[in-house]
Amino acid sequence: MSHVQEPQSPADRQTQQSGATLLLDPGAALLTFLAGFIGLLVTTKPCWLISEALIALGIAILSGAHKELLAALRALLVFLVLVMAASWWEGGLLAMLAASGRVVALVAWAAALFAVAPPENIVETLQLWGLPLRIAFVVSAGLRFIPLIASTFQDVREAQEARGIRFTPFWQHLKEYLALLIPLLREIFRFIDQLAQAMEARGFSAPVRTPVTGARWRIRDGLILLLACAGCVTMLLFGR
Amino acid sequence: MGNGVPLVSARQFGYRYPVRAEGSAVAKWAIHDLDLHLDDGAWCVLTGASGSGKSTFARTLNGTIPHFYGGQIAGELTVCGIDPAEMPMSTTFRHVGCVFQDPVTQLFSSSVERELAFGLESLGLPRAEVRARVENVVAAMGITNLLHRGPQTLSGGEQQLVLLAAFLALAPRLLVLDEPMSMLDERARRLVYAALREVYAQGVGLVVIEHQPVLYSRDATCCTLMGGGTIISQGSIGDVLAMVLRRPDLGVAPSAATLWWHERILPVLQCHADLELPVPMDMQEARELIARLPGELLPALSSLKPRQVGSQAVKGKTGEERPQVEWCHVTYTYASTHEYSWLNKTGALSTTVAEPALRDVSGVLWPGEIVALLGPNGAGKSTLLRTLNGLVRPQQGEVRICGKRIVSQSVAEIARIVGYAPQRPERLFFCATVAEELVAGPRALGVEEATKHWRTMLIDTLDLAPLLSHSPYALSTGQQRRVGLAAALASRPRVIVLDEPTSGLDATARASLVTLLRELAATGATVVIVTHDIEFAAALASRWLILVAGRLIADDMPERIMLNEAVLEQAALEPSASYQLEHCLHQRLIAEHAM
């Protein structure tokens, strides 16, 4: 069968349809994320942390990930408040802003990363870099199936409540939480087992695999990565 | 295609799981003395009661057993010329595909396109060929519109289509499917069946596990009946169905058409020993036979009373005039859950569409009624059911149980009067044994002693006595369903809510369920069932509520609804087999009388 034009790869189509305004090669996106993450780790000066948080937020919004970013921050709200309270108690307002800036920046970098490079694209890139598929898949599967686990927890809780088993107030019904944990763990392990069987049934362990995407570095990818690395080095030199 | 190598060749094949059966000195053989031979072009339906070894055997065909489960194998088994136990699954998958029962756990990519490409990547084919094969299979299966959607956002029928396409792309010689039609509405079943025919037409052999073998009567080349871990009978579907008609203990349901003929026509035929008519296997044969019924039979048939569809209407049967359940202008919209959508951009598990799941639904249910909620997938049936026990709280309108508003009550409080059996009751289990599981709910509600006799009745009716000391997780799917039902009903609720109760049940268990639910209704309990099983609904329910896109479009007796073609069309329903055949017989009698 001949083609006038090679069909688009799933990665190209996914990225185009993701609504991302900034398209990057998954490898470049991952390395850019790592540069940002390292910058967060090495910086201790509050002003630099706040600056990086603002830059990360801006990039996440430019990447089209504003909804996801808000959703993630909402989910982490309790944790964020605890961090802010603890750091304010420890070191005052600036310390609080720095600590919360670190959390916000990390979430923003992650949101931007997955906006421009869906998990499977990242897995393929890691494979191309030599990481065994089994390990690379754990990364994307872990992320993709977190909502399913959350949904399972909710289903189990509802099913037990419908039988009359109470879980609130927490301190009065500690023993009943076995009725949550045992089915949940069993469901998770059953799911993992069945998922593994389904993947093996389609040749997951095959010795040779053809990643359908392939590397697609462009000049733009290199420039953005260079910029990210420069930012990281700057923070390393001046942000401590 | 296979150069004479059989698809399946099993000789005295046996398998036992590594876990010891409780109370036994050695583990029980899940499969024993099994002989089966399938050549190219086979479409084999594998049927049998729950626990007969069908799913276990299916897993041996692609090597899942023993590679994942371990255990001991006896005898010989080759599939497409290879021994699945000896070869790694990364080799076996090139020849044999296996679609398990639950599509959700078999779809693990972020888009349908990637799902289809996954297996092809494992073949190590050139990238261009992978993409070309994906395009070919998408065109063959007609799923172009699904290509860029996340598999978890698809309906059950669409997920099955994607799985079939994913395996078809690998061009195996044999495809094994474990109950591919379960949980699907009529429309989805037609789509999946058409896809199976397409797969078969491309030269792939099929082994389909099914509790209702008549679904494949038009195309299957053979049928194998299993029981007790071995093959009891092999032949055509008609041969097997004739056998199960004589042996109801085998746990396989004859077709509704066969049952109708057996109950309505055969007693009349028995008075005319000189007449011999075959027993129809499916609806088409039954219609043809009705058209060919000898004239001398017709006077006797015309004197038969019309068959009652559903149970008797029982409004006020127990003397109570107050409704047991009231829905008053209930409207509900699921909140979109964006919290994790940044993790799965192209395949979100959660919907961002804010369409109401229920729209201004009003209705009343009375004590002693058995009511069926019917409608296409996604109509809101399960949502409406969950308003009864507080798992879903309407944003508008209200729900009353036994005259009281439940908006201020917790789910655990409502559980005293509303018993709920979800679609997957195995998620309820957290105790070490079935006996403990049955007591857990009543104990939490403080009614353990008061409901002791009630639980004994449930155990007897659902045949759970042999399972009481077993772990609920060690049971087969059908057995787990029965235990889940009993656990949901153990507190003797006034309102009983069941979501797809017949899924995974064999014929024997379904018959027990019908008996049980009738007995419960006779005590004054209101029974509400969500089901796709039109025959079950027709046999049991005195009233049908039809939901389409969150709206209640019909609330009436089954006979009246089955006369309404517009409602049936919207709801993707067909009249029950017994209704259609009664109508066909009636038409024949009228025509004969006119002549």
TL;DR?
The complex is a heterodimer of chains A (240) and B (595). Chain A is mainly alpha-helical.
Distance between the termini of chain B: 56 Å
Q: How many β-strand stretches of chain A?
A: 0
CATH architecture of the domain at 8-248 in chain B, please?
3-Layer(aba) Sandwich
Give me the secondary-structure category of chain A. mainly alpha
Uncertain residue segments of chain A? 1-22
Described by strand count, sense and barrel closure, the largest sheet of chain A is: none
CA gyration radius of chain A, whole angstroms:
22 Å
- State the distance separating the first and last CA atoms of chain A: 60 Å
Instruction: Determine the oligomeric state from the structure.
Output: heterodimer
* Mean pLDDT level of chain B: 85
Shape of chain A: flat
Rg over CA atoms of chain B: 25 Å
Structural domains of chain A: how many? 2
Find the CATH superfamily of the domain at 8-248 in chain B: P-loop containing nucleotide triphosphate hydrolases
List the SSEs and their pairings.
The complex is a heterodimer of chains A (240) and B (595).
Chain A (H helix, E strand, L loop, with lengths): L9 H8 L8 H17 L3 H17 L3 H10 L1 H40 L2 H10 L4 H12 L1 H16 L16 H23 L18 H20 L2
Helix pairs in contact in A: 2-5, 2-10, 3-5, 4-5, 6-7, 8-9
Chain B lengths: L7 E9 L14 E8 L4 E6 L5 H8 L2 H4 L4 E8 L9 H4 L3 E4 L12 H11 L4 H15 L14 H13 L5 E5 L7 H16 L3 E5 L12 E6 L2 E6 L1 H10 L9 H9 L1 H4 L13 H9 L6 H5 L22 E8 L25 E8 L4 E5 L6 H6 L9 E6 L2 E2 L5 H4 L3 E4 L12 H12 L6 H10 L15 H13 L5 E5 L7 H16 L3 E5 L3 H7 L2 E6 L2 E6 L1 H6 L1 H6 L6 H18 L1
Parallel strand pairs in B: 3-7, 3-8, 5-6, 6-7, 12-17, 12-18, 15-16, 16-17
Antiparallel strand pairs in B: 1-2, 1-4, 8-9, 10-11, 10-13, 13-14, 18-19
Helix pairs in contact in B: 4-5, 4-6, 5-6, 6-7, 11-22, 15-17
